[in-house]
Amino acid sequence: MYVRSSGGKDARPVLFLHGGGVAGWMWEPTMERLPAGLRLIVPDLPGHDRSSAERYVSHDQTVSELASVVERETERPVTVVGFSLGAQLAILLAASRPDLVERVAVVSAQAKPTRAPALTLGLLSASAPLAKRQWFAKLQATALFIPAPLMSDYLRTSAHISRETLLTTVSENIRFTEPPGWAMFPGAALILAGTGERGFMKKSALSLNESLPGSELEIVDGCGHGIPLQRPDWFAQRLRSWLAP
Prior knowledge:
The protein is an alpha/beta fold. 42% of the residues lie in helices and 17% in strands.
């Protein structure tokens, strides 16, 4: 798995996990607004961009790989910030390896399984070749709030993502439920969703909050499924205040 890191190994570590169909570059607007002195760890998840040669097998295998990344990149427990697909992985990492995770920010995580997943996957399989068409990718970029400076990164990532990765990640995503260990995570947790997201996404955020005593829930006004890119100033400031001692 390709991993980009910056900052000293003894600095406070933050692991950023991107959503499906994008890559580590989606965190650029966030990272450039964070204070200096952090160790930033930013992987491209299997099947995505610079990790496109690695097959996305499952959430569980990816979490196992991420645990190895954390152990290699820092000697301290990390703050994990995950968006969408990456938010599900953040939940699983916090639940299964609380020894590695100090706190977790869960942004737009689906935790309520989609009805009729076979129908969703069938439609995705039929439309998968369109992801490599630039006109279609640009339409998707608009829906994901990709800013102009990151458009070339999105088009590159979209062009190289395989049909297998699309189907596997979406299958894992739409069947995801919160793991038993989530309710016992001892660290701090921040759960965010946008007011403009689908109802099941807001219900997922509420369920995650209710399952973990002491977690913070915020439904962000004026946002859809793309808070870090749609409102980068607000999101970075929210992280800064949440990370403050």
